[in-house]
Amino acid sequence: MRYGPPIVVFIAVVLIWELVTNRSGRHVIPAPSEIVNAATKQFDYIQRSALQTIYEALGGFVIGTIGGILVAFATARWVTARDVLLPVAIASSAVPIIAIAPILNNWFGVLNPLSKMMMAALLVFFPVMINVTRGLVEVQPASVELMRSYAASEAQVLRKLRVPNMLPFLFTALKVGATLAFIGAIVGEFFGGSSDVLGRVVMTAMSSGSYDLAWAGIFVGAVGAIVAYIVITLVERVAIPWHSSQN
Questions:
Q1: What is the model's pTM?
Q2: Lowest CB count within 10 Å: 42, 99, 132, 205, which one?
Q3: Domain boundaries, the chain
Q4: CATH number of 31-246
């Protein structure tokens, strides 16, 4: 069974965690049973907050993916665009997201979900742009020469050679971006906004000493990221079954 060992390890970790932390008193890292109990008691609150955070994360994921693909096609096609856009993209990825969050809140409004979407989009943009650019550029020279020997146009080379070569790189970036989008959205929520979001759930619960509720919010965010990763993996299997990574 392919997923047997990870499942066994997961169950073992949860059991050990429960045995170590299931003692009287308040713990910064509570027992799993306490986290589940807190999530059950505050189910409506966490569900409402999770839906809003998922909306922000997915919105940022879409924005960052579209932006990264457009810039990647431009940098792969024109050398001038590559010289101009690549340094900007690298610089944007080097800026700490904690420094960007307050700026985005001022630009778009602290209560506007777009400010959190743009935070998520910034994290998604760079891996998508870099991977798509690699996929478009790093094709076999012999394949390009064969296409040109048949008098194929640049558009035909792009459609039949470069884009299929790019797809595995794109899906790799999307799987990374799916988790980064949730991180960006939740970090953006730490700096203000609606109270019904996972970031505020964690901050408010931590400040009041409700560590079980805070961890419930953290785990719900993690589950959302994992589900997004799995969905992209399933789409990848359908889209590129011919690639060696799917064998």
A1: 0.85
A2: 99
A3: 31-246
A4: 1.10.3720.10
